[in-house]
Structure formats: structure tokens, C-alpha cells
Amino acid sequence: MTHCRNQIAQIVVTAAEMRAIENRLFAAGMPVAALMEKVAGLLARRMIDQWEALGLAPAKIGVLVGPGHNGGDALVIARELYLQGYSVVVTQPLAKLKELTEAHAQYGKSLGIPWVSLEELLDSCKILIDGLFGFGLERSISGELAEQIDRINQSQILICSIDLPSGIHTDTGQVLGCAIRADYTFCLGLWKAACFQDSAVEYLGTVEWIDFGIPFADIDAILGQSSRCYRITKERAIAGLPLPRPLLSHKYKAGHLLLVCGSEEYAGSAILAGLGARASGVGMLSIAVPHRLKPLLVAQLPEALIIPCPETETGAIAELPDTLNYQKYQAIACGPGITRSAEPIIPTLLNLPIPAILDADGLNILASLGMSQLNQRSAPTILTPHTGEFKRLFPNIDPNIDRIKAVREASQQTGAIVLLKGARTAIGSPTGTVYLNPESTPALARGGSGDVLTGLLGGLVAQLPQAPEMATQTATWWHAQAGILAAQQRTALGVDAFHLTEYLSQIPLR
Ligand SMILES: NC(=O)C1=CN([C@@H]2O[C@H](COP(=O)(O)OP(=O)(O)OC[C@H]3O[C@@H](n4cnc5c(N)ncnc54)[C@H](OP(=O)(O)O)[C@@H]3O)[C@@H](O)[C@H]2O)[C@@H](O)CC1
Ligand SMILES: Nc1ncnc2c1ncn2[C@@H]1O[C@H](COP(=O)(O)OP(=O)(O)O)[C@@H](O)[C@H]1O
Ligand SMILES: [K+]
Predict the structure, then answer these.
(1) ipTM
(2) Is 169 annotated as ligand-binding?
């Protein structure tokens, strides 16, 4: 892929943005029908390759045609497959078609492609091309159409959705009444936001981008004025890493991270965060823990400087030692396993002019102290909540409807970078830009994986204190890639947080 297409592969749009970009192409003279031919031709070729890889060709192919141009795309694919000798049938649940779609329907019928009922299609086909709705769907699906979608979902047919699984809202990823559960989704032209929303994850199947050559100038003209949204590609994720290491580097040039973590109750959190930080390549690692944890941490992380702290009765950090010289740290990451008893340390840390990452009980304490604690911050702050922590921090923002909008609002409200963890982690920055992690694995849904992320992120921020947004994207991508690799090699049940830390160093960063 060329540099320009690589850049376009990182862009994520809403339905309105996609519509505006396409309208520029049409206004400049690109005929709608020509674009549809081009797109559907690319789709047909890609689908055939995919079926061959699955050993499914040349099975009979069913095509589900909706009223709009998503249905038009489907009909062009149906025609091309038919002309190539595939056995094809079409089902068209709604009588009314847009003009161009209607023209393709007439031509398809004239060629002899059979129009059949859904039942007949499901009985005779192994593959379904879903061209019911694309980014034009705005109303909820109900009644007979919803029943038909249920029947499709209950069948064993392999489903390839055009642009989006029909029924999924392009921006929020919410199911509009009901939605097709695709095996493959071929997203057209530009990545749509729904491909990165947790609510759509179970409907998308394997997601692939079909680049049909939208000129960068048209994208830029439309997105120039809006808050941008980016997909974290490997290129993006590794671009900011301090690699190759300068030949004359030394340990104090490669960042010094202060981790503040652990308690009697959650001793392991400190180890996991420490191992995550170790994997980041950070030059120096200091770990402040309750006094009684020092021998444990020294045994697990012999390279780290362990700072024993005065403890509460319950074995949490009561305060940070007076003797601590904060000037030597480029970043502080605080929260894993500290418990809510460690409350007094949070205002102290937030008062320091050092980039700070807050996670876990660090976030819960911040929520109870109030977000005004962040007002006086002079250095970047990164908050890394999961959905529950997010709701405590931002009770006025619902992270379950639109996670992209939620992180954008949360970040703009607080001035902090907000990393909302989930199946598809979303990162909001105070400028309004949002970064989305495109792939991960449910193998990471285990206690302790977040602690690893905090350590890794802390270590990266310490190395890149001027680029905390970059470090946050890198950490998110790297952590997810390690989970994916670990799940491939150990099964999805074998990705405990400790082993996850070992896979971090196996991810190629070139
Ligand atoms: N622009 C281009 O040329 C290109 C577009 N491309 C392709 O076009 C797709 C977008 O096409 P689109 O805008 O026609 O919208 P689409 O998603 O097919 O459906 C909208 C239709 O559904 C109807 N409808 C909505 N809700 C409904 C409901 N609940 N129940 C019943 N009906 C409902 C709605 O009707 P209306 O609201 O007008 O009554 C309208 O007719 C895009 O995803 C991509 O595949 C690419 O090939 C690139 C070139
Ligand atoms: N279903 C999932 N798919 C992909 N990643 C997941 C999933 N569930 C959780 N994760 C990831 O696992 C990590 C869990 O972090 P967190 O909830 O803080 O756990 P803990 O506090 O126990 O360490 C996050 O990085 C999150 O994105
Ligand atoms: K579709």
C-alpha cells in the first residue's frame, strides 16, 4: 500500500461524513453508477477469494437486496457472479427500490437470475451476501423484516455483509431493532465508526476494508473541520516508539517511571504493573508499594527500585515517603491494587508537574474526591477506566450508547486523555480526536490484564513524555496484540495476565 492509502486506512468516519465525502465525488463528476460498479467489482473479487480460501466455492450464493444503494451494490455483485457462472439467487424483502437499484434489479431479472423467497434461499444456499442496508439506515427495523433477519441469523449460512451488517447503526454500532450477524464485513471506502464500537462487535465478524480510491483531498476537505477519529494501525502504533535506541543512550535517558501500586489485599497488581512497565523498555523503574510488599517486589522485579511506603492498618499505602525526589521521574502511574484506603496519595500525585496515569482505585478515588482535582494539573493526565469506572467518573455520560462520543466528551470535560477499556478500546484526547483499537481478544477479559496495560503505558509515557497521546495509542495496540498472539499460541483460556507480560516482548515492533 502507498503512503497515502496507508493514511486513509487510519481514518474512521460517521455516516454523515461518508455521505459528505461521496457527495463531493459526485459533484466533481464521478457518476454514481460508475462508482457502484467499481465498488461492487472490488467486492465480488474479494469475496470470491475469501470463499476459495474457506473451500466454499462454487457453492450456490444467495443475495439479500435492500431498497438503497447497499442493495444496488449487492445486485451488481449478483450479476457479476452470475455472469462468471456461479449459481445465484436473489431475495428482495422490500418492494420499493431506489432508481439505480431498481435498474440493476431489472437487468438482473432479464439475465435470468431467479428472485426467490427467503426460505428458498436459506434452503438452497451456503453463502449469503447481505446488501439489505448500509450507512443509509437510520430507522429501527421491525415487523416482517425483523423476523426475516432473525431467520437468517438462526440459519447456518455464511454471511458476508456489504459495508456494515444490516441493522447496525453506522456511528454508534447499536442494533437498530435487529441486525444481521455477519461472518465477514467488508467496509467500503473509509472505515465506519461502528466497526470499532463494542455494541457491534458480536455482529461484525471478521472486518475488512475495501479501498476504492477515494481521493485524499476530498476526505481532507470534509474532515478538516470536524473532530477526527483514527484507527490505531500498526504503523501508527509503532511510529512514536524510541526505536532504534540511540547508540549513546543511557538508563536515565530512556525515561524513569514511578509506579504507585499494590496493597496487602492486591499484592499481585503491583507485580503485574511492574512487569508491564518492564516490557515497555523504560530506562529506570521505581515502584512505590506498602512497606510489607518490598521483599515480594524485589524478588519479582530485581531491576526495579522498590520504594517502601508507610502503610494503613489494612496494608494499603498511607502516604508517599517525604524523602521522594519527584523531579527524577518522567511519568507516574498510580492505581493498580492500591484500594480506596490510599486516598491521601492521589491529591499529592496530581499536584506534581509530571505526566500522570490513573487507573483502577486511583480512578475510584478521583471520582469520590471530584474531577476538580484535575483542574490545577500542569502536565498531561491519562485516565484508563473500564466501563464501570468510567460511569463513576462521568455519571453524566453514558458509555454504553456511543463509546466514541463518550470518550470525546469525557476528555474535553476534563482536559485528560481518556482511555476507555473494552473489547474495542477507545481513546479520547482533549482536542476532540479519538483513537480506536481495531482488534483485540476476549482472552484479555481476565483480572490483572488492565494492571499490565497501566505498567506498559506508564513505561511508554516515561520514554515519550512529550507525546502522551502517541504513547497511549501504542500501549493499547501493543497490549491487544500481545493478547492476540498469546491466545493463538496458548488458546483463549491461556492468557492470564502474568503470561501476557511475556508475550509483550514477542510482538514485532518493526
Ligand atoms: N452513494 C453511493 O453511490 C455509494 C454507496 N455505496 C453503497 O451505498 C450504501 C448507502 O446507500 P444508501 O444511502 O442508499 O442507503 P442504504 O444503506 O442502502 O439504505 C437506505 C435505504 O433504506 C431505507 N430504509 C432505511 N431504514 C429502513 C427501515 N428501517 N426499514 C425499511 N427501509 C429502510 C431508506 O428508505 P427511506 O428512509 O428513504 O424511506 C433507503 O431507501 C453504502 O452503505 C454502500 O453499500 C457504495 O457502493 C459506494 C458508492
Ligand atoms: N472482551 C474483550 N475483548 C478484548 N479485550 C478485552 C475484553 N475484555 C477486557 N479486555 C481488555 O482487558 C483489559 C482489562 O482491564 P481491566 O478491566 O482494568 O482489568 P483489571 O482491572 O482486572 O486488570 C483491558 O485492556 C480491556 O480492554
Ligand atoms: K449490509
Answers:
(1) 0.94
(2) no
Separation of CA 136 and ligand 1 centre (Å): 4
DSSP annotation of 94 reads -
Does the beta carbon of 427 sit less than 6 angstroms from any atom of ligand 2?
no
Residue 198 marked ligand-binding: no
411 annotated as a binding-site residue: no
Q: Considering Cα of 459, then 465, then 468, then 474, what sign does the dihedral take?
A: negative
| 284 membership: H or E segment, kind and range | strand 284-290
Of 133, 238, 119, 140, nearest to 477 by C-alpha is: 238
Is any ligand 2 atom within 6 A of the Cβ of residue 422?
Answer: yes
Torsion (CA) 276, 278, 284, 290 in degrees, nearest 10: 60
Query: How much is the pTM?
Result: 0.96
Q: Whose CA is nearest to atom 4 of ligand 2?
A: 423
Return the closest-CA partner of residue 226 out of 473, 467, 16.
16
Would you say the C-alpha torsion 138, 144, 146, 148 has a positive or negative sign? negative
Report CA(450)–ligand 2 centroid distance (Å).
6
Ligand 2 close to Cβ of residue 360 (< 6 A) = yes
pLDDT by residue, tens only, the chain of 510 residues: 777 888 999 999 999 999 999 999 999 999 999 999 999 999 999 999 999 999 886 679 999 999 999 999 999 999 999 999 999 999 999 999 999 999 999 999 999 999 999 999 999 999 999 999 999 999 999 999 999 999 999 999 999 999 999 999 999 999 999 999 999 999 999 999 999 999 999 999 999 999 999 999 999 999 986 779 999 999 999 998 999 998 998 888 899 999 999 999 999 999 999 999 999 999 999 999 999 999 999 999 999 999 999 999 999 999 999 999 999 999 999 999 999 999 999 999 999 999 999 999 999 999 999 999 999 999 999 999 999 999 999 999 999 999 999 999 999 999 999 999 999 999 999 999 999 999 999 999 999 999 999 999 999 999 999 999 999 999 999 999 999 999 999 999 999 999 999 999 999 998
CA 163–ligand 1 middle distance (angstroms) = 11
Q: Which CATH architecture has domain 234-239+255-505?
A: 3-Layer(aba) Sandwich (3.40)
Q: Show me where the domains of the chain are located.
A: 1-224, 234-239+255-505
Look up cell 522485579; give the residue: 301
134 marked among binding-site residues: yes
Identify the bridge partners of residue 284 per DSSP, sorted by sequence position.
Answer: 256
> Is the backbone peptide bond immediately before 336 cis, with ω within 30 degrees of 0?
no
172 C-beta closer than 6 A to ligand 2 = no
Task: Identify the CATH number of the domain defined by range 1-224.
Answer: 3.40.50.10260
Q: Which atom of ligand 2 is nearest to the CA of 425?
A: 27
Q: How far is the CA of 421 from the centre of ligand 3 (A)?
A: 28
Q: Best of 204, 449, 504 to mutate for ligand 2, by most ligand atoms within 8 A of CB?
A: 449
